Amino acid sequence: MTATLISLISLFLSGFIMNLGHGLNNILVPTRLSSEGISADSIGLVMAMFSVGLLLGGLYARRLLIRVGHIRLYAASAALGAMSILVCFLWLNEWVWGAMRIIIGFSIAATNIVADGWLSERATSKTRSRILATNQTVVLSAMFLGSFLINFGEVNQAELYIIAGLLFCGGLLPIAMSRVSAPEVDDTPRMPLFDLSKTSPVGVMSVLMCGLLLGSMLSMLAVYAESKGISGVNLSMLIGSAIMGGFALQFPVGYLADRFDRRSVMLLIVLVSMVLIALVPFSVELDLFIATLILVGLSSGIMAALYPLGVSETFDRLQQNQMTAAMGTMMIIYAIGGTLGPTAAGFIMENAGDNYFFAMLAILHAVFALFIFYRSKVRPSIPVDQQEAFVPQGATGMVSADLDPRTEYTDTAPEISPAAQTAMDMATHHPELAIDMVMLIAKANPEQVNEVAGAVATVEGIDVTELYNRLNELTPEQDTELAQSIIAASTEAPAELVSAVFEEAESEDIPELAASMAEAAPEQTMEIIEAATEAVLEDDNPEAVVEIAEAYLSNVSDSLEDMRYADRLADESEQNVTDMVSMIAEKAPEQAMDVATAAVEAVPESASDVVEVLHEHDAIDDLVSDLKDRPEPS
User: What is the mean pLDDT of the chain?
Assistant: First the structure.
């Protein structure tokens, strides 16, 4: 692990230098505008444009990354960031500054996406969490220290803008001088916002509220402080407390979220934050600066924790192959909140007074708390032991989707050998010659027969039954593996192929063969189990029907036990179990009792459906009574 982190020093150093400039710019912009007498609503609108840039970066940076490459996009983004800062000194105009905030937001989003891709390439399943934590520490510590750089000059003089611009340019040097290889990039599609909101309303609302609350706090806190006479080092400490609170509270919140009901934890901390944020104006009026730092740090920390809490709550309800697509959508939701929050805060501060800034934040907390309470009554939480792990995401709102260990999911076909590729090409262009080609390859390399057969079976128009029969004659000792390869590869394997497999098999081997084939081709489970049942019945071995069911149910039980909560809900195994009981009750009614009993023991969730099936087939009443007496799963 240490060696991996050392190899990433150039990436971390580059991010640290650039985020020093970002931290300085974040406090420089609102402070300068406030000192020039710009209205609070205009300042809020200018600050909100940063989130617009984040949104644009999240939407288009990956496409640019695919087009121009990592190092070019990183260099261009760093240059854009530096230019936007320098332009702000040259022209003091709200429209110009708003445009520059969009550009620097895009710059930060793009550089983060590039850095995350580089870091993800070096990460493994064992090091991913540590690399993510290190990266977040580097970014937030740089932003914290950057807020103190404002004390090195006057906000209306050139020095601070030059320093910030130099830091953005300097952040490019460690990357440009290193030998970092460019990883492959995929433009992952995003989950539709409506679908994500329907799947996890609380998770989506939590992410939105994080953008609203944290975006408002980090954007407008400096304006509020200036109006109260807080400046210089004290101002840096106040902004720094908001940033570091967002980092420090991730860990205790995460500890609670992993051990208790997540929505209950969310409701509790939102209520606590509501009280803390409402106390800030009183501590400022009483000149209790240390108390103000603590209140701001704690409340900002809770606001920042709403993002990873929302991500975890959403992931609880998603299948694992949906997580990466959902991350992109949640970044959009955060950016929307980050745009609306400062805009609304500036409007309220301008028209109602500075102290109403914290009143607005407290009201938003209360609204969110009511929403959490309502959703808790509408839909129960999932069991605590089946919740997704909490992963800290920091206080910047930038999500390391490529580094999040929960998004590790691969559903791609394995690389195939040259022989298999040659056979596939032949099958595609000359399907009438494909099976002869496979036979030649099988004779030359018998150990490749299963891979080649599986590759050819994926090609449309191939007679997979003939393929199996001819290869089985050549390599009868591999009949089981061969059948699995062909049936798993062919999404529309004909019933005669499945039947042919069991006709060649010994009766005592059919249960395990059927179970392994169903596991290899889950979408064809019922066809496989039915063909196996018919095969043993034709051999006048009805007792093997129960063995077939038990072998299949054993695999189902083990598979469901290892699944995540959301994946298990979406899995069709429970329906397959019910269909299997129905089929056996029809074809082998004398074995229906034993099969039903085994089904309920292996998949307790299927008990009620199994009872209905037995009623439909007029099964024995005492079995029905026995199944009804079984406790329903919690």
Answer: 81
